[in-house]
């Protein structure tokens, strides 16, 4: 019986084990069907270009990509579809688009009743709105929709997620993609923030980039979140805040980021009641006033950033230095305007024992670097760049042995830095001393104590020899040594040892020699050898990440053999100007994906390549000053993003192609000094409405000037000189909007950042001048050397911003309008070689900036006005060829006495004439008095000598004695000098 009982007991346990295996075995589905169907329904609405969800097949959804189930209940609790290739910069754009999910967010997802984690971040949903059903996941604790290209209003239903602890809606800028370029079209928007107050379990909130409308009550809503620890509201468009709160409820808050908003107030007092704060970022707002003493209440603060608040007063509370836990202090881009020594009381506080990061760039700080800087022994990151700090680098800086990054660029530091000053910087990785007047006295056998990643010593005195100590820097990836006075050849070891370099800038030196093959420099991103004396053929490259290649202003020769589409597929900027390159422009340049192509000032020949149909985002083409021939190929006009086209000073022919009409973004069109024929097309004034510069000078254009060019409201340079244009100057030319105001330096010719310095050669003041940095100030109209006739339109005097007006060498008739004086900014006026008649208007003396004037070879008559700036024009050639002109500075006197009074004559009204009469009478009496005085004085002195013989003899004897004394003195000196030369 005992055996039978034992067997029955074993059978019973076996049955129980079988039941347990069934509960955990394959007989129970590992994915609940209704949830599996919910996922498949959600997938149907998605676009999946990389087939990321290819694993979403079969019955077991718990094994699908991005899906996680509860081990016990098998319910789907987690859906993580975050893009594995996030869009962080242009390098990642291609992969980001390839791996992004898009399409719809279908409500079938509601079948996942137990979902507590949802991540759809870093995808591209094309600006669709966040669906309202997202507020129905009652068990959701984690929701991340950041960088998902969502737009529109954020639904208030999200406030129903009472279990939510983590909410991230950040960086949902709605991108529209033009090929490989992303432009922001929209944002997520919050119209009322009260729903946020219902997220009672929230601990983390990130809404960076979400735009808050006016009156959203964001602060009141946040103040009702008792458990929140981190709040990120950067770049939310917030412009107001309460200065005080009756009671601060979010007492657990540790991180608060309100940076990059437009909050315009003093620093609110409620901030200083959050004693738990460890991270406070108020940078780049419009806070004003001072940093209040109440800052000492934030005793737990480790990071404090006020950078970019330019209206904060220079006074910094001493209490700031008493934040003994402070590790990061950002005071950059604030108008402190003090000497560093005036901050002694702040920077000698207890935070000197904890501070690791001090950023005070661009704060108008002056004075010398103080000794107390050396007391910050834990300092790792120091940035004092862009200030007015002068004097030497002090020895106290040597005590900062923990420094990892040191930025002192853009100051007025001077003096010698020796090897001893770098001796303690054993941890230094980033060093920038550029744009100072420092002399680096470093011997060729110096062994640096550090291994740098980044070194910028541009404008420091380093040469003339190439620094041999660089050979020891094995980790350097970013090296900038422009304008350092090096006039040496680059040693071979440099090219062998620095093949890992990413950024290299040794421009504006006197470096000689050739550049070897660089195909092993696969990490090159930025390569600038411009303005040196390199020669030989262009080097070969093989870098898929190379963005900028600048070899301009050297002596490179030979053909352009760069295989851009294969060896440099991501090149954005190609600068090869001012070399001796010859041959054809290779077809590979058409494969530049975007930005700038400058091959100007070379010896390139043949025709322009006709391969631009598949080029995407080229903004600038400069092929000027070569030997190119043929016509403009139609495909070059297919570049819809083209802003600047320079083809001047070549041998191009034909009519201006109609296809150019489609280049509606053109700001600069320079086709001067070629052989273009035909008429100026009217479509320029109809389609190219963004033009700021139109230069067609020195071609063979004929016909009338289209009057609709005046529709080019942005035009500031119009140069049609040296053609065969006929007809009259359109009176509508007085309507050029941009010519009615003065140019401004803060304006730019090009809209996009292209690293290309837009430049233009114009004729002003009778000479060719090339403008670059000052080009936004240049407002010019040049219609000279054509066959224009008729009168000068009086409407041109509406162009108050004109700096130069040149209408010379035409057949213009009529009088010069009296309103010419309205052109107050005019510096150069040339109306020579026309058929103008009548008098020179007296208002011309109102042109007080005028420094060049040419009215020669017309039929002008009457007197030349004199006054103000016109008094300085003493060269009569500016009036030559006008036989009926008279008065200063001409030799021909006017019959009217008032016109002959030289520099004392001023044209004007009757009052001026009366004044001139009075002054003329006074001058006559003055001259008569001078003559009478001279006569009386002459006879008083010489009369007695003439009639009294003894006086006459005594006078000449005295003259003889003086002559003898002087002669003997000179003879003695000469003799001594001669003897001295003989003896030596």
Question: Topology, please?
Answer:
Layout: H1 2-24, H2 33-44, E1 46-47, E2 67-69, E3 76-80, H3 93-99, E4 102-103, E5 117-119, E6 142-144, E7 152-153, E8 166-168, E9 174-178, E10 181-186, E11 188-190, E12 204-206, E13 211-212, H4 218-222, E14 230-232, E15 255-257, E16 279-281, E17 289-291, E18 303-305, E19 312-316, E20 328-330, H5 344-347, E21 357-359, E22 381-383, E23 390-391, E24 405-407, E25 412-418, E26 430-432, E27 437-441, E28 454-456, E29 478-480, H6 492-497, E30 503-505, E31 512-513, E32 526-528, E33 533-536, E34 548-550, E35 555-558, H7 564-567, E36 573-575, E37 580-583, E38 594-598, E39 603-604, E40 617-622, E41 629-630, E42 644-646, E43 651-654, E44 668-670, E45 675-679, H8 684-687, E46 693-695, E47 700-704, E48 717-719, E49 724-728, E50 760-764, E51 767-771, E52 780-782, E53 787-791, E54 804-806, E55 811-813, E56 828-830, E57 837-838, E58 852-854, E59 859-863, E60 884-886, H9 910-947, H10 949-983
Parallel strand pairs: 3-5, 5-6, 6-8, 7-11, 8-12, 11-13, 12-14, 14-15, 15-16, 16-18, 17-19, 18-20, 20-21, 21-22, 22-24, 23-25, 24-26, 25-27, 26-28, 28-29, 29-30, 30-32, 31-33, 32-34, 33-35, 34-36, 35-37, 36-38, 37-39, 38-40, 40-42, 41-43, 42-44, 43-45, 44-46, 45-47, 46-48, 47-49, 48-52, 49-53, ...
Antiparallel strand pairs: 1-4, 2-3, 9-10, 50-51
């Amino acid at each position: 019986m005992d055996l039978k009982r034992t067997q029955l007991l074993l059978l019973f346990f076996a049955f129980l084990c079988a039941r347990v295996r069934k509960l955990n075995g394959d007989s129970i589905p590992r994915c609940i069907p209704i949830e599996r169907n919910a996922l498949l329904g959600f997938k149907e609405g998605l676009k999946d270009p990389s087939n990321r969800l290819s694993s979403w097949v079969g019955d077991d959804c718990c094994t699908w990509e991005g899906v996680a189930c509860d081990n016990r209940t098998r319910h789907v609790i987690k859906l993580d579809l975050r893009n594995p290739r996030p869009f962080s910069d242009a390098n990642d754009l291609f992969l980001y688009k390839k791996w992004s999910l898009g399409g719809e967010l279908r409500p079938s997802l509601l079948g996942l009743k137990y979902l507590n984690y949802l991540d759809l971040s870093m995808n591209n949903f094309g600006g669709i709105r966040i669906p309202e059903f997202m507020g129905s996941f009652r068990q959701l604790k984690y929701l991340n929709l950041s960088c998902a290209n969502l737009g529109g209003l954020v639904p208030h239903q999200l406030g129903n997620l009472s279990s939510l602890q983590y909410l991230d809606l950040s960086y949902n800028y709605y991108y529209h993609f033009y090929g490989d370029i992303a432009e922001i079209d929209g944002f997520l928007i919050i119209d009322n923030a009260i729903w946020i107050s219902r997220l009672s379990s929230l601990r983390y909130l990130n809404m960076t980039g979400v735009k808050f409308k006016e009156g959203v009550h964001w602060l009141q809503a946040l103040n009702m979140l008792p458990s929140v620890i981190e709040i990120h509201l950067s770049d939310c468009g917030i412009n107001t805040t309460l200065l005080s709160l009756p009671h601060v409820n979010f007492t657990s808050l540790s991180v608060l980021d309100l940076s990059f908003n437009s909050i315009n107030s003093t620093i609110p007092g409620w901030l200083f009641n959050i004693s738990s704060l460890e991270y406070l970022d108020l940078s780049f707002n419009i806070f004003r006033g001072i940093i209040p003493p109440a800052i000492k209440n934030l005793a737990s603060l480790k990071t404090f950033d006020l950078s970019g608040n330019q209206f904060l007063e220079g006074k910094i509370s001493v209490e700031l230095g008493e934040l003994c836990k402070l590790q990061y202090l950002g005071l950059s881009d604030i108008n402190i305007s003090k000497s560093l020594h005036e901050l002694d009381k702040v920077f000698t506080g207890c935070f000197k024992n904890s501070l690791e990061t001090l950023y005070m760039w661009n704060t108008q700080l002056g004075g010398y670097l103080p000794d107390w800087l050396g007391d910050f022994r834990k300092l790792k990151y120091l940035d004092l760049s862009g200030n007015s700090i002068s004097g030497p680098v002090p020895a106290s800086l040597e005590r900062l042995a923990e420094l990892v990054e040191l930025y002192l660029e853009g100051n007025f530091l001077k003096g010698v830095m020796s090897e001893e000053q770098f001796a303690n910087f054993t941890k230094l990785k980033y060093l920038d001393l550029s744009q100072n007047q420092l002399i680096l006295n470093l011997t060729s056998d110096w062994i640096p104590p550090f291994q740098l990643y980044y070194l910028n010593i541009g404008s420091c005195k380093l040469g003339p020899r190439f620094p041999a100590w660089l050979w020891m820097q094995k980790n350097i990836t970013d090296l900038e040594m422009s304008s350092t006075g090096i006039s040496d050849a680059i040693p071979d070891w440099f090219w062998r040892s620095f093949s890992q370099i990413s950024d290299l800038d040794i421009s504006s030196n006197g470096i000689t020699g050739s550049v070897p093959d660089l195909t092993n420099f696969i990490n090159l991103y930025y390569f600038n050898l411009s303005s040196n004396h390199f020669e030989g053929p262009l080097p070969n490259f093989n870098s898929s990440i190379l963005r900028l290649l600048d070899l301009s202003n050297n002596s490179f020769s030979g053909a352009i053999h760069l295989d851009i589409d294969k060896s440099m597929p991501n090149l954005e900027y190609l600068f090869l100007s001012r070399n001796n390159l010859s041959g054809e422009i290779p077809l590979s340049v058409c494969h530049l994906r975007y930005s700038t192509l400058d091959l100007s000032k070379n010896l390139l020949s043949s025709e322009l390549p006709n391969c631009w149909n598949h080029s995407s985002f080229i903004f600038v083409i400069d092929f000027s000053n070569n030997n190119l021939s043929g016509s403009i190929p139609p495909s070059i006009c297919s570049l819809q993003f083209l802003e600047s086209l320079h083809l001047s000073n070549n041998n191009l022919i034909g009519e201006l192609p109609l296809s150019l009409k489609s280049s509606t973004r053109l700001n600069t069109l320079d086709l001067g000094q070629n052989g273009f024929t035909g008429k100026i097309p009217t479509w320029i004034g109809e389609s190219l409405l963004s033009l700021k510069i139109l230069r067609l000078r020195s071609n063979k254009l004929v016909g009338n000037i289209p009057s609709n060019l005046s529709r080019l409201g942005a035009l500031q340079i119009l140069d049609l000189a040296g053609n065969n244009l006929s007809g009259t100057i359109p009176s509508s030319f007085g309507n050029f909007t941009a010519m009615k105001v003065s140019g401004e330096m803060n304006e730019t010719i090009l809209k996009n950042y292209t690293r290309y310095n837009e430049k233009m050669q114009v004729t002003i003041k009778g000479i060719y001048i090339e403008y670059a940095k000052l080009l936004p100030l240049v407002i010019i109209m040049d219609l000279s050397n054509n066959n224009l006739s008729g009168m000068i339109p009086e409407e041109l005097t509406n162009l108050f911003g004109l700096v130069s007006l040149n209408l010379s060498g035409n057949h213009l008739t009529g009088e010069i309008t009296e309103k010419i004086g309205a052109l107050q900014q005019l510096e150069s006026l040339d109306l020579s070689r026309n058929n103008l008649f009548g008098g020179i208007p007296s208002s011309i003396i109102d042109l007080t900036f005028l420094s060049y004037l040419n009215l020669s070879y017309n039929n002008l008559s009457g007197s030349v006005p004199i006054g103000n700036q016109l008094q300085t024009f003493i060269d009569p050639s500016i009036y030559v060829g006008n036989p009926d002109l008279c008065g200063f500075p001409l030799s021909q006197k006017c019959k009217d006495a008032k016109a002959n009074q030289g520099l004392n004559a001023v044209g004007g009204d009757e009052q001026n004439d009366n004044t001139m009469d009075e002054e003329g009478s006074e001058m006559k009496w003055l001259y008569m008095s001078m003559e009478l005085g001279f006569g009386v004085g002459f006879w008083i002195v010489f009369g007695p000598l003439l009639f009294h013989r003894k006086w006459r003899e005594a006078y000449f004897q005295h003259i003889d004695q003086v002559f003898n004394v002087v002669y003997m003195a000179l003879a003695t000196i000469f003799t001594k000098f001669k003897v001295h030369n003989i003896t030596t």
